[in-house]
Please model this.
Amino acid sequence: MQAHATVARESTSVPTGRVGVWWFLASEIAIFGGAVACYVLFRARYPDWADQAARTLGWAGAFNTAVLLTSSLSAVLAHHAAVRGEAVRASHMLRWTAVGGLVFLAVKVYEYAHEISAGLVPAQSLFWSFYYLLTGLHALHVTAGIVALLAVAASARRGHALGRVELVALYWHFVDVVWIFLFPLLYLSS
Amino acid sequence: MSDAHPSDRFAVLVWAALLAALLGSLALGAFVPTTMVVVWVFAVAVLKAGLVLYQYMHLKHEPRWVRLVVFGSLAVVAALLAGTIDDIVVAPGRL
Amino acid sequence: MGDADGGHPMSGPAPTSFWRRYVFSTDHKVIAKQYLFTGVAMAFVGGLLAYVFRSQLAWPGEPVPGWGPVGLDEYNALVTLHGMIMVFWVAMPVLVAGFGNLLIPLMVGTDDMAFPRLNMLSFWIFFLSTLLVVASFFAPGGPPGTGWTLYPPLSTSGMPGAWGVDVLVLAVALEFAAFLMGGINFLTTAINKRARGMGMWDLPLFVWEEIIASIVFMLSVGPLIAGALMLLADRHFGTGFYDPRAGGDPLLFQHLFWFFGHPEVYVLLLPALGIVAEIFCAGARKTLFGYRTIVWATIVAGLLSFIVWAHHQFVAGIDPRLAAPFSLTTILISVPFSITIFALIATLWGGSIRFSLPLAWAVAMVAEFLLGGVTGIVNGSAAADIYVHDSYFVVAHFHYTLVPIALFAPLAGFYFWFPKMTGRMLDARLGLLHLVATVVFFNVTFLPQFALGMMGMHRRIANPAAFEFLREGMPLQELSTVGVIGLLVSQAPFVVNLVWSWLRGPVAGANPWRATTLDWQCPSPPPHGNFEREVVVRRGPYVYSPPGSAEDFVPQDAPDAERAGGGAVPSPLVQPAE
Model:
């Protein structure tokens, strides 16, 4: 028996996809927030961690911050294009955002290589354990974000599901916001 | 929705402000060698995050309950910090 | 996850292939049954583990019939997996995911969850985690014997080669991922897929309880996910997050664990109370007493649940100055729950009660839960807790809360909504036998444990006969074990009832309990897409026995003209749509 098919309608002014993403981001805030809170506690307990923080590559972190901020711009431009119905431009902008993510990861890999060759591995000391935990967790999110960006870009190009452009952009901005805090927390030495 | 006609020009302006804030906090770190710099750098980080959240993520257009979801989850993290700070930072190793 | 980002019809045509219909289904009712029956199956696994270690406690050293002798490491693994399975693979899938999936779309009057494919993914990730938790018992290097709390250093340097610990942590992580997806789905559905005319204050209480439980779960579990990553890093990458020799702190894990672990109790309790409330209203033919008061009290309880956790750590070496504030918040949180319980009892008061089987189960739930709640006051105050901490008094306390929550409430719900799930009634005489036997043996099992705890029986002792001061407690140990065996055997009538009634039970009809909420206004079992017409909600959820009406209930979506006498239904709950 086939029941009467209800047409999608929304009980609030926020589209259903966006409600889902906001709740998803809330759970992500709790995960990152918990990890960052643990780091902040130990950073306050051991003031001499400033010496370790001074050994991070500050210029690389600053460059990566600028990269992520710029990729957030292309993500928001993709969203605007999708709202105007410009599917090809939206798809292009998402791909540029993904390129930003790839540059970020490349720089991050360079940093890891530099640090590991200097003996600064996760087991070196608690500061470096936290450094790899936080940046690693963030890099995983960047990687997942790149995959999501490219998938949405591919379907957006064909004019499919343009509503998802905004959703993936929201997630990307969140990854950006996390880095905005991780950068001073981990790289700042004073 | 008030963002029915989103302005690309405004998004670029926000981006310029974000980069300026980044450069500003780097300059602060380089030229102001006091502990006050930490406060300033984090104030700038909060400003940057606020710009991304409110302008890029359109939190300013969302109803109040969506803002409550975001800031509520931050408040929960704050509760975790408040409850553990004494054991981990102030008076560790009592056992 | 953007299943619903267009204006196209939602649930599409019903799938025809066997696999898409019954196995990889996106239909919330099928997924609900998958969660419910996986949970019921795991309940028997958890119960059998309890039978084995309780036998060891009552007759130490003797081979357990059907199992053999119990080694000490094996004993620890049995206790660990019993706790893990009962909380994460029984209570969570049955109460939160099972009943939530079944009832939220029906109660808000929609065709399916907001993200049906995410919902299916959630179940299969959960199913994978179920296989892993069973596998952890047979893992190379030994099963996990850490206790369900996974405290370091036992879980890190204490069990270095035991892959069982890693498999268990992985299983828990996957389980969390599954329920995060489920929580996002529940929240989005309840917020954005309500029927036309249904405001938030028209939601049945069960939906409110699931909303608040999902939020509490989602926000409390995040830090523990980070903490679990640190635990695995400590085990395998040489880090020292929880190792004082490296500058870390084992207390950190306890804080992260209980920051989630205590709210988790309320994540389970809230849906249980929601089930009880629905059954009470239909059974008493009365509107829910203090609907808004209960919702607000539950919101307050949800907020308070984030600041009570350290009462689990009063003897862990935390700063004694923290004992007073955490005792205070812990005792404070009993206030909103007392309000809820009183409101539930007041719902029965003065009602014209139809004493059906689900109502009997629901009353049993409240009665037994009260014992657990009241003994919680003892554990919540630091001074009293230090005496009973980690003793069988605590074990008895949390079983008097969790067994009513995870056994009585779901069974009440099962007897109540089985007709909706299958279209057939369960047999009431078998159900009554099930109830009486379960109540008797539940108390036989756990009442003696209060006394054993006061005697000094520590919860990690595997052989009480080895201690002079515990020998006089051996008869109580045996009584408790007899209780467990009785409790397991008592479930037989339920299984028989389930199978027999599903095949041969009397046909139920759409609304056998003559209830008002939307879940009863669609056919039993509901077809793919649930409702045969578009639902328009016209009043609050519990309009029973309105004066001057021929029927003693008015469904939420009944047009006013259909009522004898006509006119608007007087109800304090009717709210204009948002």
In short: Chain C touches chain B at residues 219-220, 222-223, 244, 249, 251-252, 255-256, 259, 306-307, 309-310, 316-319, 321-322, 326 (CB under 8 Å). The first helix of chain C runs from residue 18 to 23.
